[in-house]
């Protein structure tokens, strides 16, 4: 009886120690899930453009004005090395607060207040949707 119990215990130990392959984890997906869903901020990805005294954030379906504040100044400093010209845009993933514009303001229906910069990268140089005027 002791031999059977010993063999059974060894078999269970070997089965429990089996190597399991873990699925790959996408960090970008988990980053968005790790924030408190009730904080009022949303994660958005799109092209960010700043020139002179105006900033715009464009997703594939919408365009937003961007609130001018300290986070925007910090974003501009981080974006400068990624631009070839002052009018170039950069790809931005950020946590933002979506604000409805006042009735007396001009511009798009919503503006964004940038709360946290998650990822910043240069736009695709092969992208040919920009028209440049020559001299």
CATH architecture of the domain at 35-122: Beta Barrel
Structural class: alpha+beta
At the third CATH level, what is the topology name of the domain at 35-122? OB fold (Dihydrolipoamide Acetyltransferase, E2P)
CATH class of the domain at 35-122: Mainly Beta
> What characterizes the major β-sheet?
5 strands, mixed, barrel
Low-confidence stretches: none
Instruction: State the separation between the terminal residues, measured CA to CA.
Output: 96 Å
Radius of gyration, CA atoms, in whole angstroms: 25 Å
Compute the average pLDDT. 78
Shape: elongated
H-E order: HHEEEHEE
Strand content: 25-35%
Strand neighbour order, sheet with most strands: 1-2-3-5-4
Give the fraction of residues assigned to helices. Answer: 10-25%
Put simply, the count of helices is 3
Q: How many strand units?
A: 5
Q: Would you kindly provide a written description of the structure presented here, covering whatever features stand out?
A:
With 135 residues, this protein is α+β, with helices and mostly antiparallel strands. It has a domain at 35-122: OB fold (Dihydrolipoamide Acetyltransferase, E2P) (Beta Barrel). It has helices at residues 2-16, 27-33, 70-79, and strands at 42-51, 54-58, 63-66, 90-100, 110-122. It has a five-stranded mixed barrel with strand order 1-2-3-5-4. It is elongated, with a radius of gyration of 25 Å.
Care to give the gist of this entry?
This protein is an alpha+beta fold.
């Amino acid at each position: 009886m002791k031999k059977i119990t010993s063999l059974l215990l060894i078999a269970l130990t070997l089965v429990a120690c089996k190597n399991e392959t873990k699925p790959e984890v996408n960090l970008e997906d988990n980053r968005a899930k790790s924030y408190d869903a009730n904080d009022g901020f949303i994660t958005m990805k799109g092209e960010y453009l700043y020139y002179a005294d105006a900033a715009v954030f464009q997703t594939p379906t919408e365009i937003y004005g961007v609130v001018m504040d300290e986070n925007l100044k910090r974003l501009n400093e981080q974006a400068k090395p990624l631009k070839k010209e002052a009018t170039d845009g950069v790809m931005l993933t950020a946590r933002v607060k979506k604000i409805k514009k006042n009735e007396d303001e001009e511009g798009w229906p919503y503006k964004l207040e940038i709360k946290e910069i998650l990822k910043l990268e240069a736009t695709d140089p092969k992208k040919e949707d920009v028209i440049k005027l020559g001299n």
